[in-house]
Amino acid sequence: MADLVRFPLLHRSADKHDWVQWLSANGGKSLEDYRHIPFNLDELALDAAARGLGVAMTDLTLAGESIERGVLVVPFGNPLKTRGIYALNLQPSATSHPACSLIMQWFAQQAEQQAREVEH
User: Fold this and answer.
1) Residue 5 pLDDT exceeds 80
2) Mean pLDDT calculated for residue range 45-51
3) Contact 48, 38 (CB under 8 A)
4) Do residues 12 and 56 make contact, with C-beta atoms less than 8 angstroms apart?
5) Which CATH architecture has domain 2-68?
6) Are 14 and 38 in contact (CB under 8 A)?
């Protein structure tokens, strides 16, 4: 943990919430004690981490392939399980696309399945 202050924290969002949670769970310093580089996409933060520009916080699903290939590493212990969520935001023009209703049905089925799994 002491070495973490030597690297910028790469953020996938402006709110820095993921890093706040992780630092709190791992006994890290205050968020203000670190340098920061914000991005608006996970992919950009992961690319910056792969280039050695800092330490990124992201979902393991998104980083899994790069971790398996050795492009990225999990540098500090076990990943934090946050039970975060994903959201789907449609552009107004997308709702008229013929495939939109099928995709929305698929997402609804996935959400229902996940809810049933959590209950058990």
Assistant:
1) yes
2) 95
3) no
4) yes
5) 3-Layer(aba) Sandwich (3.40)
6) yes
